[in-house]
Amino acid sequence: MTDEARSSYLRRAGRGRLEDGRVVTWSVAEGARGRRWRWTLASADGDLVHVGLIELAPTGRFTRLELETGSGMLTLHPTPEGTMAHGNVVRGEGVDPIVMPWSDGAAIAFRDDPFGSALGSGQGSGWVVGGDLRLTSSSDSAADMPAPLDVDARGVPRLADAAEWALET
User: Fold this and answer.
1) What is the pLDDT of residue 107?
2) Which of 13, 34, 81, 128 has its CA 20 to 30 Å from the CA of residue 106?
């Protein structure tokens, strides 16, 4: 890989506030295999709500989700052919395996996280992750979902009181 190709990748970190005062801290590292987003969502008082990771292929196609909350840990990824998704939810009581239908370009949204929803917006319908880490069809959840944040030309969601820094390699 040339230095020029490497320097064109988006490698940034930042923080900002949602409309309700909650704070998002994030990083994005882009490379030949796509983008890896990591973010935390904290209450306005600084209490951690959740920690997330979304990976996207160079085409923007969703490839992996990891989300940790007080309810447990969720992992989800589509199969290579893109027709099914697999994963699990690990809770204090045990493991709940996940096997569900998937379609290429499907979206992942988060019931109470417009930043995460902007990252996983995909090109079509998909699934919504609730605070309890349960997945529901986006067609069943659309009415009570906040809209994802607008994104800039780089695909970075816009936050209030935003600050941003280079992510050094």
Assistant:
1) 86
2) 13
